[in-house]
Amino acid sequence: MNPLPYGGVFGGGGLFGIGFAMGVLEGLKPRGIDLSEVPLLGTSAGSWAAAATAFDVPFSVLAEMRVPSFPNPKPGLLASIAHEIFGEKTDPLIHVMACALPRLKRTILDGGKFPLSDLVAASSAVPALLSPHTIDGTRYIDGGVRSGTSVDYGPDVENLVLIAPLAGAMWGPFARLIDKGMHKEVAQWKERTGGKVLIFTPHSAAASIARNPKHLFDKARAIEAYHLGRAEADTYDLTFT
């Protein structure tokens, strides 16, 4: 069977990552790349972007969601917030990456089998900030613990849009480490699928608004990241390589 023409992989990055990814995605639509009905894999913040894209939930809605104080050990907290946006919706085109306890095994969760509100909660359960989320008897934590994007597990498509909010100009040596792992995973994905990739990472303007980890969870900075992500998509060279 021939691969689908488009797919997406969206990485983690807190509220900042949600804003940046949604800005890129909403900026790509007028340029002819609409990822609302294609296979998507999201990790942490990217799982929110994937679910929102699948159900045409604009960033303006995500920007109004409740943001808990951190750390917050209350079980089910993220799931309840996600449920306010996504309800009990499922979608077999959406998958998320989470880490299964106790061995932190990277695990792909299927949006056709479980509500996206549960998947988003599992993929975004940041250790030490939020409680693990249980699905079908297994406890999960943030998929970004093992990989910023897990693009090596990306869907089998001809052209893959990869959004990595913690790579590029972010945080010096940390971003270089993320970049190195991401490009290794991209090479593995290309070898497996034969596909091409278009990579979005924050340019210096976007990176400058999140200079430390606390900034990733600031709603005002997330809104700014959305506008900068959209501006990046407006002018980006859309050549897949």
Structural notes for this entry:
Helices cover 37% and strands 18% of the residues. It is α/β, with parallel strands linked by helices. It has one domain: Cytosolic phospholipase A2 catalytic domain (3-Layer(aba) Sandwich). Strands 1, 2, 3, 4, 5, 6, 7 and 8 form an eight-stranded mixed β-sheet that branches. A hairpin with a 2-residue loop joins strand 5 and strand 6. 49% of the residues are buried.
In short:
The chain is α/β, with parallel strands linked by helices and 241 residues long. It is built from 8 helices and 8 strands. It has one domain: Cytosolic phospholipase A2 catalytic domain (3-Layer(aba) Sandwich), CATH 3.40.1090.
Per-chain topology:
Elements: E1 4-10, H1 14-28, E2 40-43, H2 45-54, H3 59-62, H4 77-86, E3 94-100, E4 105-110, H5 116-123, E5 133-135, E6 138-142, E7 157-163, H6 173-193, E8 196-200, H7 204-207, H8 219-235
Parallel strand pairs: 1-2, 1-7, 2-3, 7-8
Antiparallel strand pairs: 3-4, 3-6, 5-6
Domain PNPLA: 113-152
Transmembrane segments: 6-25
InterPro entries: Acyl_Trfase/lysoPLipase (IPR016035), PNPLA_dom (IPR002641)
